[in-house]
Design a protein that fits this description.
Elements (H helix, E strand, L loop, with lengths): L11 E3 L8 H7 L9 H18 L5 E5 L3 H12 L5 E6 L2 H12 L3 E6 L8 H10 L5 E5 L1 E2 L4 E2 L2 H10 L3 E5 L18 E3 L13 E5 L1 H8 L12 H8 L13 H17 L1 H22 L14 E5 L6 H12 L1 E5 L8 E5 L7 H17 L9 H11 L3
The structure holds pyridoxal-5'-phosphate.
Length: 396
């Protein structure tokens, strides 16, 4: 055997995640590994909780990072809050709502679906009607930022409807945390999960979650044991419980957590509102460039999610060839369409450290060059200038 070390190419990541990881985060992850019950590590984890509470805008004591990717955070919310025989309303307007349905059913609960067209936000009237038609539901589940389409939904309004019906709300904030306005306490969200590799710009593999007091009560008073031992928050709470004695549950991914800690310190340094504004400014600049070229967004303007820009692939263009040329010649990754939108859209991510003027301009010029090569019907020579105008006006 003569396999040597793996050296990945340096890419610019502008897909649906992972996003570019800031060098400060990679440096933090290379610091010495210590024991996960080492008092120094415990101190770092207490800071992590405060940093996550800031990012989520919550005072929830049960705020922590699940030691696995966003999908595990999703599963943690469902397996802890649902029991066999429960009923849940699941809003679906893209890929991730479909995964929520899977989770509900695997808990032995019934999923009542509220479906909307992919690319549209969740229709509040339909949610209201489903709640009225189904008394006794345990919870409502909704994706705040649908990464498969780039649509953002009004989770604050849906939380209010759920609470009026005596139900809880679970929110998927994998792509919104840090990148677009999200206020867990003000919006009264009961259970929320996110991911480290989207707008927090950390490496993949960690899932920040937070649970309200109301949700904690439900978890503590379950009739049945949580079906997953690893994700049972009754056990995890004893580990991350804060301050007092921690008992061994699993070995925390120490160095990955250094990375998340650094990512959250950077978010705090920038300021949450400033980060939201930056994502919005980059989105508007990218949009100006794409529209100047003649490309169009699939999501109606009011529901557009700054971190994820889904655009229609122009007719006659070879989807896969464009993406592979961007990757191979420009080291630039953009996302393909998922599910119902496969082959129809590209998804350009502006998440965390990827949401910069440099990336916006690079993506516009590389995309323009590749589309021109394919004789796509675009206007040339105007995109980067249109984006620059907005960036300069916004002080970048
Ligand atoms: C990426 C993503 C997930 C899944 O996160 P993983 O870290 O890939 O497991 C779930 N929901 C949404 C909206 C996402 O964008």
């Amino acid at each position: 055997m003569s396999i040597t070390s793996f050296h990945p190419p340096v890419r610019t990541l502008m897909g649906p995640g992972p996003s570019d990881v800031h060098p400060r985060i990679l440096e933090a992850m290379s610091r010495p590994t210590i024991g996960h019950l080492d008092p120094e590590f415990v101190t770092m984890m207490d800071q992590m909780k405060a940093l996550l509470q800031y990012a989520f805008q919550t005072k929830n004591p049960l705020t922590l990072s699940v030691s696995a990717p966003g999908s595990a955070g999703m599963e943690a919310c469902f397996v802890n809050l649902l029991e066999p025989g429960d009923k849940a309303i699941v809003c679906q307007n893209g890929v991730f709502g479909g995964r929520m349905k899977e989770n509900v059913e695997r808990c032995g609960a019934t999923a009542i679906m509220v479906e909307d067209e992919w690319g549209k936000p969740v229709d509040l009237g339909k949610v209201e009607a489903a709640i009225k038609a189904n008394p006794g539901i345990k919870l409502v589940a909704v994706v705040h930022a649908e990464t498969s389409t780039g649509a953002s939904s009004d989770v604050e309004a849906i939380a209010r409807m759920a609470h009026d019906a005596g139900a809880l709300i679970i929110v998927d904030a994998v792509t919104s945390l840090g990148g677009s306005p999200l206020k867990v306490d003000e919006w009264q969200i009961d259970a929320i999960y996110s991911g480290s590799q989207k707008c927090l710009s950390c490496t993949p593999g960690l899932s920040p979650v937070s649970f309200s007091e109301r949700a904690v009560e439900v978890i503590k008073s379950r009739k049945n044991k949580v079906q997953s031992w690893f994700l049972d928050l009754n056990l995890v709470m004893a580990y991350w419980g804060g301050g007092v004695k921690r008992t061994y549950h699993h070995t925390a991914p120490i160095n990955a957590l250094y990375g998340l800690h650094e990512a959250l310190v950077m978010l705090q340094e920038e300021g949450l509102e400033k980060s939201w504004q930056r994502h919005r400014s980059m989105h508007l600049a990218l949009r100006a460039g794409l529209e100047a070229m003649g490309l169009s967004f699939i999501v109606p303007e009011a529901a557009r999610l700054p971190p994820l820009n889904a655009i229609t692939i122009p007719g006659g263009v070879d989807d896969a060839a464009v993406r592979s040329t961007l990757l191979n010649r420009y080291n630039l990754e953009i996302g393909a369409g998922l599910g119902a939108l496969a082959g129809k859209v590209w998804r350009i991510g502006l998440m965390g450290a990827s949401a910069t003027p440099k990336n916006v301009l690079y993506c516009l010029s590389a995309l323009e060059a590749v589309l021109a090569e394919q004789s796509a019907p675009i206007r040339r020579g105007v995109a980067t200038e249109a984006a620059q105008r907005l960036l300069v006006a916004d002080g970048y």
